[in-house]
Amino acid sequence: MIRITRSIVIDEDELSETFVRASGPGGQNVNKVASCVQLRFNAAASPALSDDVRARLATLAGRRLTNDGVLVINADRFRTQERNRADARERLIDLLQRAAVAPTVRRATRPTLASKRERVESKKRRSDVKRHRSVRPESD
User: Fold this and answer.
1) Residue 137, exposed/middle/buried by CB under 10 A (0-12, 13-18, 19+)?
2) Domains along the chain?
3) Would you list the DSSP string of 96-138?
4) Is the pTM of this model over 0.85?
5) Which of 73, 72, 75, 76 is nearest to 30 (CA)?
6) At what angle are helices 81-100 and 51-61 packed, to 10 degrees?
7) Is 4 left (phi over 0), alpha (psi -120 to 50) or beta?
8) Residue range 43-71: average pLDDT?
9) Each residue of 75-112: pLDDT tens digit?
10) Percent of the chain at pLDDT exceeding 70
């Protein structure tokens, strides 16, 4: 079990990992060892995710989410399979944690009287500066 938040826990069985040859670091091993991890998580079929979390995940994931609702994460930053595997899982957890946070609703408010006055005063000051730049300033 992988704990994402207090209410979201995904089962290890929902993840599938495949190992392919990486294009990143690896020295002489880069052409011999399959160190890149391709982590797949079927977000559309996961019972742990609610519909609103799925929708936010689709927005955050972008191209990493397939048309079938499968999230694909490629990890090839490190030379070893183990570190790439841990990196892929960390990135999945981070993405799901960000999707679990509901955005705060913005409530429209009116500007205060003081802020309106300050705005008008700053406009007047700016106007005076520009007016006094001319060669022959107009008389006040």
Assistant:
1) exposed
2) 2-100 (3.30.160.20)
3) HHHHHSPPPPPPP-PPPHHHHHHHHHHHHHHHHHHHTTSSSPP
4) no
5) 76
6) 120
7) alpha
8) 81
9) 878 777 788 888 888 888 888 888 888 888 999 999 99
10) 86
